[in-house]
UniProtKB/TrEMBL annotation:
InterPro entries registered for this protein in UniProt: Glycosyl_Trfase_fam3 (IPR000312), Glycosyl_Trfase_fam3_N_dom (IPR017459), Glycosyl_Trfase_fam3_N_dom_sf (IPR036320), Nuc_phospho_transferase (IPR035902), PYNP-like_C_sf (IPR036566), PYNP_C (IPR013102), Pyrmidine_PPas_bac/euk (IPR018090), Pyrmidine_PPase_CS (IPR017872)
Name assigned to this protein: Pyrimidine-nucleoside phosphorylase
Protein EC: 2.4.2.2
EC class name: transferase
One function term, GO molecular function aspect: pyrimidine-nucleoside phosphorylase activity
Source organism per UniProt: Streptococcus oriscaviae
UniProt-listed SUPFAM superfamilies: Nucleoside phosphorylase/phosphoribosyltransferase catalytic domain (SSF52418), Nucleoside phosphorylase/phosphoribosyltransferase N-terminal domain (SSF47648), Pyrimidine nucleoside phosphorylase C-terminal domain (SSF54680)
């Protein structure tokens, strides 16, 4: 086989065979297929797509390039959760302990943030002492004992995705359904859970900008999961504005703690309870929304979160410490009306510039900085009212402040936001 022939075949819109896909992926991982040919192939996929069979073959070829985690030593149905990326997305921090508080084991591997999106690992690492690098043995034993663990993805898992994702990131080939579906599902399949909840984000701050594309991505991933015997459900969720009220690592931990104590915003609390109900259902534990919410109210979910923090070396005193920054800058509404848009991408990039995120993988983070919105889409505001606070360790220029204000769209009409748009199963 020759790589150039496979690129040409895809470029001309033809289907690749199972063997051809395996050959290409294995060649890429062992270095015989160079980056420049793989980028050309990714771009051909971007324009010509892949059939369901090709996506499935690509996913399984990718799974085979690394180790597969065996969670069978953990009793019960193990559930996992994955989000396709978001701004202010602290859902995992609440959902994992909430589900675990019902006795359903959650063994989760998470990722880091890049660009306008945040990553759960960075948020957890803002807690003093918290370890995300845990051996497989310790990971399994923590889930056996505490019922939950959130750790960094093992370096040996899906080697093809590590290489390919980095390549896609710099060749404008990330936002294409076959490559996103195979990237996400290869990692989920290799991570070993019996059931998977996929949070497919839609909107300005997500890879999928419209519901039709998000639905197609969701269905593709659900079908991939089911084909290998994993119960899989996807939920399309709104990413046109940031999730909850905060963006920034430590700030999001603090918001998560509020939600875990039943003191969070109603909309985000409701949304997370709905996701928890679906995850519990995947583990055959049927609970009403009231029963789920009760575990936030009575402290059971918070207790689980604290257990996880302790098990992974985190300092409980530091967990509850407020952020420490040099500047807390209030932002006021420019006019009266209703907030109709808080573009997630813009605010994610704003937080990134404050040090809360990375422009490139090697950037150091400032865990303390970020943004808190006191008003979200749908809220009435009067001119001069405080709508947000910027937490920064550097002076904020007039220009940046004006930019922030301009991005808060205020109009004379009310826009309703909806966290869960659709469930795909
Ligand atoms: N998240 C992933 O893990 N992979 C993608 O390709 C996109 C989002």
């Amino acid at each position: 086989m020759r790589t150039v022939d496979l690129i040409q075949k895809k470029r001309d819109g033809h289907e690749l065979s199972t063997d051809e896909i395996k050959w290409l992926i294995n060649g890429y991982v062992d270095g015989t297929v160079p980056d420049y040919q793989m980028s050309a192939f990714a771009m051909a996929v971007y324009f010509k797509g892949m059939s369901t069979r090709e996506i499935s073959d690509l996913t399984m070829a990718m799974v085979a390039t690394g180790e597969q985690i065996d969670l069978s030593a953990i009793a019960g149905i193990k559930v996992d959760k994955h989000s396709t990326g978001g701004v202010g997305d602290k859902v995992t921090l609440i959902l994992v302990p909430l589900v675990a508080s019902f006795g359903v084991p959650v063994a989760k591997m998470s990722g880091r943030g890049l660009g306008h999106t945040g990553g759960t690992l960075d948020k957890l690492e803002s807690i003093k002492g918290f370890q995300i690098e845990v051996s497989q043995e310790d990971f399994i034993s923590q889930v056996q004992q505490a019922g939950l663990a959130v750790i960094g993805q093992s370096n040996n898992l899906v080697k093809a995705d590590k290489l390919l994702y980095a390549l896609r990131d710099v060749t404008a080939t990330v936002d294409t359904i076959p490559l996103i579906a195979s990237s996400v599902m290869s990692k989920k399949i290799a991570a070993g859970a019996d059931a998977i909840l996929l949070d497919v984000t839609v909107g300005e701050g997500a890879f999928m900008k419209n519901v039709e594309d998000a639905r197609l991505l969701a269905q593709t991933m659900v079908d991939l999961g089911k084909a290998v015997g994993r119960k899989t459900v996807a939920v399309l969720t709104d990413m046109s504005q940031p999730v909850g009220t905060s963006i920034g690592n430590r700030l999001e931990i603090l918001e998560a703690l509020d939600i875990l104590q039943g003191k969070g915003r109603e909309d985000v609390t409701e949304f997370i309870c709905e996701l928890a109900q679906i995850m519990l259902g995947l583990a055959q534990v049927e609970k009403s929304l009231d029963e789920v919410r009760q575990h936030l109210q009575d402290g059971s979910a918070l207790k689980k979160f604290e257990e996880m923090v302790l098990a992974q070396g985190g300092d409980l005193e530091d967990l509850y410490r407020p952020v420490q920054v040099e500047h807390q800058l209030p932002v006021y509404a420019e006019k009266s009306g209703y907030i109709t848009a808080l573009p997630a991408m813009e605010f994610g990039l704003f937080a990134m510039k404050l040090g809360a995120g990375r422009a490139v993988k090697t950037d150091e983070l400032d865990y303390e900085t970020g943004l808190v919105f006191h008003k979200k889409v749908g809220a009435a505001v009067v001119q001069g009212e405080q709508i947000a606070t910027i937490y920064s360790n550097e002076n904020i220029s007039e220009n940046m402040l004006t930019n922030f204000q301009k991005n808060v769209r205020i109009e004379d009409r009310v826009v309703k936001s909806k966290e869960i748009i659709e469930i795909v199963s």
